């Protein structure tokens, strides 16, 4: 398995409120985490970094193995994310952090499969056989309009309310966490990203940039550069994970 994590402030923002990292547990099983913070000058930075670090440190204490049942890991992810939601919400009551929140993408890698947990409008996707497949469903106003048949998916990409999200960590009430387990094959590529990438770079360009023989570090750099070339209107964060036959 090869991976790359890259985050960039973009062309228009002063601060980077995205945060991403990876952690191993007691058995060497790896989790990837990506968060896109929101709130004031300080608050968004705090929410995203705290969420990733808290969940990463919690994962590091676990004993899940490659043979652990995915239902157990999905249940663990949901419980930890709900607890972190409460933590962020409590911090958000303080004056310095009012209104802060964050999206979250979490991916646990096991043999032959990944386990994904998702809140917000960041995305986890997989390139499989040259096709970009979205694993997660955006928790956003425009996605609800698409689901209701009021606008098309193409119209959603350019909708003026595209950035209004309907679910995030930091809510005063319990949140629903989407989880899914997906079988993976050799040569599959996992792409986790904030909307600073997906709002700037169309699917075809993501596939062209990533589905080749370049190393993953160069590919992540190329994706970020492409998002910046196309406007770089937001922070841009990308995690790429590639699998070889020996990993599965």
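Q: What amino acid sequence fits the structure above?
A:
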């Amino acid at each position: 398995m090869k991976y790359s994590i890259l985050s960039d402030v973009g062309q228009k923002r002063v601060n980077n409120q995205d945060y991403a990292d990876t952690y191993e547990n007691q058995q060497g099983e790896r989790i990837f985490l990506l968060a896109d913070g929101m709130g004031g000058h300080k608050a968004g930075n705090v929410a995203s970094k705290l969420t990733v670090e808290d969940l990463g440190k919690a994962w590091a204490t676990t004993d899940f193995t490659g043979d652990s049942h995915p239902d157990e890991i999905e249940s663990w992810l949901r419980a930890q994310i709900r607890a972190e939601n409460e933590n962020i919400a409590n911090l958000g009551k303080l004056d310095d952090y009012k209104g802060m929140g964050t999206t979250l993408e979490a991916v646990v890698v096991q043999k032959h499969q990944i386990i994904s947990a998702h809140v917000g409008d960041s995305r986890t996707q997989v390139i499989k056989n040259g096709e970009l497949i979205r694993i997660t469903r955006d928790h956003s106003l425009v996605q609800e309009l698409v689901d209701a048949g009021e606008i098309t998916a193409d119209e959603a990409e350019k909708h003026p309310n595209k950035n209004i999200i309907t679910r995030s960590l930091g809510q005063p009430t319990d949140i629903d966490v989407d989880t899914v387990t997906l079988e993976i094959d050799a040569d599959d590529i996992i792409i986790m990203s904030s909307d600073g990438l997906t709002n700037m770079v169309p699917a075809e360009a993501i596939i062209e940039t990533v589905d080749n023989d370049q190393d993953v570090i160069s590919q992540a750099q190329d994706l970020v550069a492409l998002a910046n070339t196309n406007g770089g209107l937001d922070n841009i964060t990308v995690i790429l994970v590639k699998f070889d036959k020996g990993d599965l």
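Q: And what stands out in the fold?
A: The chain has a mean pLDDT of 94.
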